[in-house]
Amino acid sequence: MKISRYLLSFALLGLPSCTRDAENHAPTEHADAHAGEAPPMTNRVDAPESVRRNLGITFAKVESRAVAQTIRVPGQFEFQPEARREYRTMLDGRVELLVKQFDTVEPGKPLYRLASPQWRDLQEKLSEAESTIRRTEARVGSIPALILAHHRHEEILEGNIALWVKRVEQLEQTHGSGVVSADELTSAQNMLATQRAELAEILEKEADLEGQIVSAQAEHDAAHARFRLLISTASTLLGIDEKALAAPYDLDQHLHTGLHRHEEPATRPVAAWRKIDEVEIRASLAGVIESVPLTNGAWASTGTLVLTCVDPNRLRFRAMGMQSDLGRLKSGLPARIVPPKGGTIDLQDTMEATLTLGLGADAQERTVELIALPTHLASWARPGISAHLEIITAGGQSELAIPLSSVIQDGLAKVIFRRDPKDSDRVIRMEADLGVNDGRWVVVQSGLRDGDEVVLDGVYQLMIATSGSVQKGGHFHPDGTFHEGKDE
Question: CA-to-CA distance for 452 and 436, rounded, in angstroms?
């Protein structure tokens, strides 16, 4: 009490320009007439914006909370496993970096280029497969014309054979009468045999052509399948869709099961995969470049890490709860991530989350792993930032509560300062009627309503200024000093 009065006296001496002090140094008849009267009883203190700024006074709203059913545990933010993406070389080659550390990237943005001899080898294999497809297509397309010519030749031979059969029959009938000589009959029979042999040879060639069609078709289909596999490999390496690599051609334009022939254009457009000189890797997800362990222009072998990208929005909160609370904890409980005390972060800048019980526990510390996934991220959320997890267990009901740090001890009484609902530049000193607390919030049993505001930062200065003179009231000057009574 003596210290408080000493501080108040010191503050008063430091402001000789105060109107009230000036009147005390130059008393008048009007002042003498009221010298014996006590000032009006009040517990209100003027605290305009300039005073709040100088003293660092802030306010916190009264909230409805289930304080008795809340478990608070410390923890920190960390990246979710899927938040980090590594980009490694798929081939040997020289790396040309296109981004820097901490650059922000969007899906599809080029990250680096790779000049690789292995990519040239893959292009060569694709070219060979495509050449085989075209060669077998031409082969399969030419065989039907040969078969048709053999059919026509076969028809002619069959007609000739029919004529020679009749001729030999006629000669055999007249040979007994001596009209036809034996040489003439023998010559006709030889011609018939020749025609029949030639027909058999034509039929044999037709059968061979049919076999060649099956063989060429199988070779064509195998070349097409190999081409598709090579395109799939190129798509994986480049991160480009297969259809885009084959453009302007259709990937299945060579896949036919019957005899066919394509009409080749005079000039063929170049496929997209032929135009690629260097492998260009693009971002698959949005994020920020976390690290670039490889220098620009370095030669990298297959599987070398080039850079790492992370999505800063994919965070989760990891905390360690007490094993003694396992009976009250379960996955799916509502939770709240709150900033630590004593910083510049607003105490009520919290994040709603859902609790998940982790798989790990510590037998020595007797703790269990808790994971909370926030529904939204506050601006202060960063990997490694420490905070607290408030878990609302089942049962009980919500009650009006204020931050525990807004309550201060003044002698035997606990005091709070309520912002005057009728005048935002004035605060009201009150003795706190408190209930249970969870270490951060405390239940207020009377004197406050939902939505009211209480002083959070600056409560100590207000207590010092009003201790022992609560009923006198007073005001602050812009420089932070306190004077009793009204500012006249």
Answer: 19
Q: How far apart are CA 24 and CA 10, in angstroms?
A: 16
Q: Which two tokens stand for residue 407?
A: 């309550």
d(CA 109, CA 181): 96
Signed CA dihedral, 382, 384, 386, 390: sign only: positive
Blockwise average pLDDT, block size 10, the chain, 488 residues? 37 40 43 47 78 84 80 92 92 94 93 93 91 81 71 77 78 68 76 80 73 78 89 87 85 51 59 89 92 93 94 94 87 89 77 92 90 92 91 77 86 88 87 82 85 86 72 54 57
Residue 264, both tokens? 């080749």
The SS3 call for residue 382 is coil
What pTM does this model have?
A: 0.58
Q: Which two tokens stand for residue 263?
A: 């009409």
CA 253 to chain centre: 38
Other Cβ atoms within 10 Å of 54 Cβ, number: 16
For residue 159, give Cα distances in angstroms to 119, 154, 156, 195, 455: 61, 9, 5, 10, 118
Contact predicate 381/69, CB 8 Å: no
Burial of 103-127, coded b for 16+ CB within 10 Å and e otherwise, reads: eebeeeeebbbbebeebeebbebbe
Torsion from C-alpha of 291, 292, 294, 297, nearest 10 degrees: 180
Q: What pLDDT score does 356 carry?
A: 93
pLDDT for residue 171 = 73
Neighbours of 428 (CB within 10 A): 19
Cα(380)–Cα(481) distance, integer angstroms: 34
